[in-house]
Amino acid sequence: MKIPETYSSTSIYLRSFILPLVEETHADLLSSIRTVSNSPISQISRIRETKNHQSPSDLFYQITVLKKRGDAYEPAVGDLIAVTNIRPRCINDLNNHCLIAFVHRASNFCITVLSSKLITTLDQNKEIRFVVYLTNLNTNIRIWRSLNSELEGGNMKIIDKVLQVHSSVRK
Question: In angstroms, rounded to a whole number, what is the distance separating the alpha carbons of residues 77 and 30?
Fold first, then answer.
């Protein structure tokens, strides 16, 4: 893809970064999934629907992970995790045994996640499950919001001013 030398507007300029951001996010996630056997992991002690849970689109769950000495993974806001019933040893273990979730809130080994799929309520707390760290999306989300003009008012004016072509700079 050839990068243009000039852009007709600030919004077109900002949109030109969206595809590279998506590609970079995809590459980071793929890299994490390929090395999933080395990813931080914690066992789940409890899963339940939150009051904000509304099937089929808002699949919010509260997950409590076990506190273990030493190397217990404590999920953080912005983490993309796999919820699985096995300890993944390779990428193929994620094919049939997991769903992806985004950590929306986190506090003292208790997290609220937005899940990619419905977690079946039947025996959900009896089956041993794990959360596996895949990647953290905080930086990517901030960039995405900026590129999609979620900067308002004065902030967008500053960007317009910085990107403005001055007559003294022209060829």
Answer: 20
> How many domains, the chain?
1
Residues, the chain: 171
What is the per-residue pLDDT for 126? 58
Confidence of residue 9 (pLDDT cuts 50, 70, 90): confident
- How far apart CA 115 and CA 168 sit, in angstroms, is 53
Q: Which domain holds residue 15?
A: 10-151
pLDDT at 122 over 50: no
| Cis previous bond, 56, omega within 30 | yes
Q: What is this structure's pTM?
A: 0.81
Report the distance separating Cα 27 and Cα 20, nearest Å: 10
| Cβ atoms of residues 47 and 124 within 8 Å | yes
Q: What is the CA radius of gyration of the chain?
A: 21
Residue (of 60, 32, 4) closest to 137 by Cα position: 32
Whether 157 maps to a domain, the answer reads: no
Do 121 and 49 form a contact (C-beta atoms < 8 A)?
yes
d(CA 113, CA 137): 14
Would residue 167 count as lying in a domain?
no
